[in-house]
Design brief:
The complex is a heterodimer of chains A (461) and B (443).
Chain A lengths: L3 H9 L4 E17 L2 E19 L2 E7 L4 H18 L13 E6 L11 H14 L6 E19 L3 E20 L2 E12 L3 H4 L3 H16 L7 E7 L1 H13 L4 H6 L19 E4 L20 E5 L2 E2 L6 H6 L8 E2 L8 E2 L3 E4 L6 H5 L4 E5 L6 E5 L4 E5 L3 E5 L2 E6 L2 E6 H6 L1 E4 L4 E4 L5 E3 L2 E3 L2 E4 L2 E10 L1
Parallel strand pairs in A: 4-6, 8-15, 14-25
Antiparallel strand pairs in A: 1-2, 1-5, 2-3, 5-6, 6-7, 8-26, 9-10, 9-14, 10-11, 12-13, 15-18, 16-17, 17-20, 18-19, 20-26, 21-26, 22-25, 23-24
Helix pairs in contact in A: 3-5
Chain B lengths: L3 H10 L4 E16 L3 E18 L2 E7 L4 H17 L24 H4 L3 H16 L5 E19 L4 E19 L2 E11 L7 H14 L4 E2 L3 E7 L1 H12 L5 H5 L20 E4 L20 E6 L2 E2 L6 H6 L8 E4 L3 E4 L4 E3 L6 H6 L3 E9 L10 E13 L2 E7 L1 E6 H7 L1 E4 L4 E3 L2 E3 L2 E9 L2
Parallel strand pairs in B: 7-17, 8-15, 14-21
Antiparallel strand pairs in B: 1-2, 1-4, 2-3, 4-5, 5-6, 8-22, 9-10, 9-14, 10-11, 12-13, 15-16, 16-17, 16-18, 18-22, 19-22, 20-21
Amino acid sequence: MELDWILSEGEKLGLDDLSLIYHESAFEIFSVDNRNIREAFRSGVKGLGIRLVYKGGFGFSATNILDRDSIYRCLERALAIARAVQPQSKAKLAEVETVKDKAHSKFEENPLEVDFEEKLRVVLEANRAAFNDPRVKSAFTRLGVMYDRRVIKSTTGVDVEVKSFTTGVSHVSVAYESGVMERVAHQKSMVSGWEFIERNDWTEFTSDLSNLVCKALYCKTPPPGSYTVVVDPEVVGLLLHEAFGHASEGDLVYSGGSILRNRLGTKVASDYVTIVDEGVVEGGYFIPYDDEGVPKRRTLVVENGVLKRFLTSRRAAAELSTTTTGNGRCQDFENIPIVRQTNFYMLPGDAKFEELLEGVDYGIYIKGKGSTGGEVDPGMGTFTFSVGPSHMIRKGEVGEMVRGVVISGFILDVLRDVDCVSSDLHISTSVFGGCGKSAQTVKVGDGGPHIRVKRMIVGGG
Amino acid sequence: MFNLRRILDKLTSIGAEDGDLTVIRRERLTVDFTDKVEACRYTNGCVVGFRVAVGRRIGLYLSNDVTPQGLEEAVDKVVKIARASPEDPYWVSAPKGLGVTSVDRVYDERLAKLTPEEAVEIAESTIEGINSSKYGVKSVYGVLNVEISERTIANLHGEEVSRRDTFIVIYATAKAGEGSESATFSDFQQARFMDEVKPYELGREIGLKAYEFIGAKSLDTGLYDLILDGRVAASIFSSLLSMAISADSVQTNRSPLVNKIGSEIMSPKVTFIDDGTVPGFMGSRMCDDEGIPVRRNCVIESGVLKTYLYDTYTANREKRESTGNSHKASATSSRPLPNNLILKPGDYELDEMVGETSKGVYILKTIGEWLSNPVSGYLNATVTHGYLIVNGSIEGRVKGAVIGGDFYQIMKDKVVGLSKDLHGRGNSYSPHVKFERVQLSGS
């Protein structure tokens, strides 16, 4: 789509800054519910978002009608909004490097070109395989395919295109026996073409989840209280993203809504903890540039326990008098870029998994498979997460399974109590979900190694 | 704009035998603010969602390309998807008998004409309320969102119906103090009409609460009487009940309420109504997302489960009528969910509830209640703001404890009473609710 003429019009209007995002996406969902097809869905969406700054006033408008007249009206509306805001707002944007690039994720087979019949076959077979035990009463399986293309141009000389495909399968099994009902849900996604679907055994994936939920039926919940815990990479990722990552987002820092405000250069975690945010990493989502066209490289957020940097968009960087880290991201063309994480994860240490268990007389091995997510108050650092079926640890050994486990606490206490970090690393993303903030959802990745935390509050169901 | 009938005719001409389409035109005006207005956004757009049947083969397609060429492509694609799908044995037909119920205060002309300047003024008034509440209290984050939508549903049976809705939500967070001696508080106002929001008062109340919770203490693990603020209770009920009473969850064995119609599942003090016709409530609407008129459904009456909620698809599976509860994600795929889930109020005053509590917590705010498990019925929520009650008086502020337990057992055996007033969060409404001896996990 031709966008340069809009930039020329913007220059004629005397704007401080003009950024355009042309976005097109396609999303497919094929879902099977208890052996029957429930959804064969495809969407195709495209549109243009216009963000401008006029005398310090921010204006934004978007349209999905892409003829010249509609786009011009959209530009005028954004300008009218900037004028309305301008008396109250003296917004600045950090300078960015001039960049021209096209970045496409790697794929072998375009998943949108694979026949619907083939996609339905995969998801039907996977769903059928979940009924491997008479106690499995319900099984719901989805196959997701996403295509995302963004073209970002600005009067600062940015001209970037980012294109990616993501595929994955999600599944939930529900088991019931003797008045007890339990569910376990999980998903596996990759920035990839159809080959990711072809190279995985999805019948094994769903039947494993059914085995897990049947086993969980007979498990107790752990007595509520404070425990030494070993946390798997999935929960480490969730915990870091929600409870620490959001607090490191520059907009929350400059507005005062983060517990990390005024803590740069100070100790916020134990020496074992190093955390980064990185745009392109194995297993994560594909974000070589943010939605302001800024390259998203590795940002060292915490190094050996010391807070080194906040994540910034152009706006947050200007407010914090620093440079942008390439974290200005928006859900789609209808939204304005705000500070978001990309792939936020903890770097591995050098311990073996067994070393983490050593010395734990009575604790819990917290596992992520089956987790339903978490919530955090970034201003206070309070978090709560519902994790998957987990295991007690007794005298250094992984013991019986427990279910209905909820962890909660204050993130800085938890990170200060990390006393051992393993050498493994696992990062994941999801084609189905994303991270929500300010009514926008964006794709992210998260993860880390296994870690041991001396003390964490565990509540049971 | 485009001609709906022409699209439906085209669908029929290339082999669609049944189905419906949904056209949503939406305008959004948003103001983002911290301690000052940060940005204002306006978007408008139109999407068309198709649900098409060829025999019992169903295809779904959503597009925002509403040019003649874009719609032609959409029509071709959705029929192609339907033809490729296996048969759905439970599919009977798209909804028939479209119509509307008369519902007051769902569309406000004044809100629909709100200008960016007026929206900015509302945001500023909220900020002013926070910043003037107490010395050292500051607005740190907020958003004002105004949405105007018009939805048209048309089917291949020749029926067509439309509804219009307006919404305004102001959400704000204040911070008081700095470092370890600090506290935050967030709250919101939601309404369908402009005259129902009081931004300055909202801001002031948020600011005062943030100040009040500086120095809140952790709580010891133990059994406490709990008074859930109406909005906390509304959020918990929405998380645990909305899916459980959906006929879709019941028919697919993902609800703990399977085969429980006629059973006493809660205390006789508890009556839950689903009602999409209450003037000004957030889930009120003249018809559901399939174009079926909404109505009042008594779901749990004096503790006894009376009905599940149905859309056309789930109703057809049981050869009964839809209860008018279709909610369509992406304007295509339908699931039955509550319109407004309402716990019928009782006769307590909040002060009475507190006064009659010897050891308890009045829970003002929680996070993570949506992580509760609607399949197993496990309740989980983390208290971020609560008042410790000792011998009938508020003795301090507490934070950081986890409420956990079997939701249905708590609702059956632990309910002491309900307050007279009703409080809403989203489309869920509840009075303050008092429970006796519930487990809290603290430090």
